[in-house]
Hints:
Blueprint: E1 2-12, H1 16-31, E2 43-46, E3 49-58, E4 61-71, E5 78-88, E6 94-104, H2 121-128, E7 130-133, E8 135-136, E9 142-143, H3 149-156, E10 165-168, H4 181-188, E11 193-196, H5 205-208, E12 219-222, E13 237-238, H6 240-244, H7 249-261, H8 271-289, H9 292-333, H10 335-342, H11 348-351, H12 358-369, E14 373-375, H13 379-385, H14 391-411, H15 418-426, E15 429-431, H16 436-441, H17 443-446, E16 447-450, E17 453-456, E18 459-463, E19 472-479, E20 484-491
Amino acid sequence: xxxxxxxxFTIRDGKLEKIIDLCRTWVRGRFQRRLDGFxxxxxxxxxxxxxxxxxxxxxxKDYFAMRLTHIDGVIPGFLWSTDIGIxxxxxxxxxxxxxxxxxxxxxRIQPVSFELTRxxxxxxxxxxxxxxxxxxxxxxxxxxxxxxxxKFVGIILDKQRxxxxxxxxxxxxxxxxxxxxxxxxxxxxxVAHVFYSRDRAISLAEILxxxxxxxxxxxxxxxxxxxxxxxxxxxxxxxxxxxxxxxxVGEELFRMISGFSISGGMIRNSVESVKGLNLRKKIGELESxxxxxxxxxxxxxxxDALRKxxxxxxxxxxxxxxxxxxxxxxxxxxxxxxxxxxxGDEGREDLVPAFGSVEEAVETIKGRYGQRVLFAGRTRKQVxxxxxxDPQQIFRALEWVATVxxxxxxxxxxxxDIRLSCKDQTGMxxxxxxxxxxxxxxxRDYFIEVDGVRVPLEMHLKKGVSKDSNSxxxxxxxxxxxxxxxxGYIGKHQRNRKT
Length: 499
């Protein structure tokens, strides 16, 4: 089983018994039975589902763990498992871990497409109790008012913050967020804090800088502070246009954030570990009584439990191996670029052939990075007619898009300034946005159609300002569903209001 989601938070001043009662109520809806002994420890298996719980009291701490496992309702043989681990500390606080895992029942490693949502117990716990993770958690989004901008930015810049912040800005037209913030907050509750505004005058630019702002209906995720925090490429941005065209920002956010939420490792207090606490306590008592017969049985029981735990962890490791294979494939695709730019110009001639034309450079990119880059629109004709003097530079630019840029969009994080990366590696400037007015005036230059869908070419690489062989523009978009770049324009300077 491979972890797919993890929420960790603290419930303050909540009695452990009440928290467990809420978990039992949630589980009982699946089993339609009383589940007697749930608080102490049970193990029930029914066709297609099972529930196991354990509890322990050690060193003035109370422990509770449960695991609910069930077969997917659509995919035969595909399992889902929800682990909940709770520790009640002496001061009354409760540390809560909720981990959602999945995998094939027979242990196979095989790709599968599934719908991922957070366990329903997470919002129930947060609604019922005073829950926090750095800041108070809430199922409802929090509104940012004009007089609270400094406070909100202070939360964004808090170096102790561990959860991401998602902010939905007000549109200039009606001062409402472009997305349903209540729905989005419910989707990602427990793994992010959601804020929104209903005031178009609110701007974060004065403190964070224009490149880190979020305005006019856009949505942005602000990850916890890092060394290169003010690199705008690190913080995913959805423009009003992207949202208006039907993009499900909430679903994309959940998949992005849940993918990173499991980086904290496995659940701290699993059913096996809580049972192990009881067993170690029992062994200690038997040792003090020198009851060697029962002690031998206890050690045998502990060995069996450890063996089962090793098998469980090995299954989880298989899931990590599958992830590793995907990452290895991505790494292999970008290996040439890494070799070039780690060693300066050394070896560049071997890796960047001496192309006789832009068309040759583009065809080589298609061969190497066809899974990451799609050439669409009128690019075939544009490439044949392109007279740009340096096809090798075109190759390096497209290779940067296929590797560095695609990786930054797939992960949502780019280490270092992406604009500087582009300039250093290609000699071109990366421009993340186009003027809406210009795009509207020259529709043919800034929009293409792919599979019946109208795609705006908002990003582009550029060099030169003239319209001769010294100037080039490469305009593109990113498709989050296929996780690849769509190249829609290669040629001289596109038309704009000045030309």
